């Protein structure tokens, strides 16, 4: 299986990349426990920022950006993590996905994640990230993972799950869906037809 993580962290190192790594490692471990091997590719949008801006203006992606887009559209599963700016995903994160054809991700399994300085931004998963990937017709996992600064190194209590527990739960969900699709895949003709039907839908 091919697993691609998209990290929109701006610093090096960044908590966004750290969360992306933790999530992909967990999915890979869960898949291994079920007898499946996953190849992981991490795309750092920070390194593609200039190329993304140029593509938005010219309409043509340079080779490195084209390769990143191809990796995302051909992946079996996506792990997407963005830092929070002004209570939403970063502009870099959104700009990258603006470059991908809306139908290219149809039916793809997506795990959403975000990082921020305060727990107040945790709803970004539901009011920004989930609608974005629903619009792109992906299958967004029930569990999204938000990590505030204080979550790193914290454990759970009687009322809330700690960050490691949320990461494990999301990883199990993604691995279960990927394994189910691998063992009982939709025939190519049916998949193509499903994509066509979805692309023909209008939401007026």
From TrEMBL:
Residue ranges annotated for the NADPH-dependent FMN reductase-like domain, each copy included: 1-152
Annotated source species: Streptomyces camelliae
Pfam families the record matches: FMN_red
SUPFAM superfamilies, A to Z: Flavoproteins (SSF52218)
Gene3D superfamilies to which the protein is assigned, alphabetical: 3.40.50.360
Name of the protein this chain belongs to: FMN reductase
UniProt keyword terms in alphabetical order: Flavoprotein, FMN, Oxidoreductase
């Amino acid at each position: 299986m091919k697993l691609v993580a998209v990290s929109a962290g701006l610093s090096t190192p960044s908590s966004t990349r750290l969360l992306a790594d933790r999530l992909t490692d967990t999915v890979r471990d869960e898949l291994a426990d079920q007898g499946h091997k996953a190849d992981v590719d991490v795309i750092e949008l920070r390194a593609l920022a200039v190329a993304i801006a140029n593509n938005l203006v010219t309409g043509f992606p340079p080779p490195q950006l084209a390769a990143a887009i191809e990796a995302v559209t051909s992946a079996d599963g996506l792990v997407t993590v963005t830092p929070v700016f002004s209570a939403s995903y970063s502009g870099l994160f959104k700009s990258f996905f603006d470059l991908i054809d809306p139908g290219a991700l149809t039916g793809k399994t997506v795990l959403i994640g975000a990082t921020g300085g305060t727990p107040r931004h945790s709803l970004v998963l539901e009011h920004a990230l989930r609608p974005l990937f629903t619009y792109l017709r992906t299958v967004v996992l029930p569990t999204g993972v938000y990590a505030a600064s204080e979550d790193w190194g914290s454990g759970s209590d009687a009322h809330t799950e700690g960050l490691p527990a949320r990461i494990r739960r999301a990883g199990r969900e993604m691995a279960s869906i990927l394994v189910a699709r691998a063992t009982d895949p939709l025939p190519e003709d049916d998949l193509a037809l499903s994509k066509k039907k979805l692309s023909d839908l209008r939401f007026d």
